[in-house]
Design a protein that fits this description.
By secondary structure, the chain is mainly β. Strands 2, 4, 5, 6, 9, 10 and 11 form a seven-stranded mixed beta sheet that branches. The chain has a four-stranded antiparallel beta sheet with strand order 1-3-8-7, with no helix packed on it.
Length: 119
């Protein structure tokens, strides 16, 4: 089984930068992808950024050019560097891991961390 622990949420001023981290713990799983999604009040959860085990990256349209996802392969930790933050980036950010636990598909979610961007 896998557990995800997010950290780094908080209050940030518009135009500033902030970094989120997500550490995966567990064993005997094969990673397919890790990444971030977010959900703003009254809105559906949306893609922020994902990275496959092979290093392929996909960004949501609203964060392209401002956010960067990276991964520590040894620690199985994924980071999200957020630059040029806007008020509309305010949301609960969720870490996601997809993979396999032996032959069973995994789709694990963190508890979420709130990022509030003040105008």
């Amino acid at each position: 089984q896998v557990q995800l622990m997010e950290s780094g949420g908080g209050l940030v001023q518009a135009g500033g930068s902030h970094r989120l981290s997500c550490a995966a713990s567990g064993s005997d799983f094969r990673l397919v992808a890790m990444g971030w999604y977010r959900q703003a009040p009254g809105k559906e959860r949306e893609l922020v950024a994902t990275m496959t085990s092979g290093g392929s990256i996909n960004y949501g349209d609203s964060v392209k050019g401002r956010f960067t996802i990276s991964r520590d392969y040894v620690k199985t930790t994924v980071y999200l560097l957020m630059n040029s933050l806007k008020a509309e980036d305010t949301a609960v950010y969720y870490c996601n891991l997809r993979g396999y636990y032996y032959t069973d598909a995994l789709d694990a979610w963190g508890q979420g961390t709130l990022v509030t961007v003040s105008p």
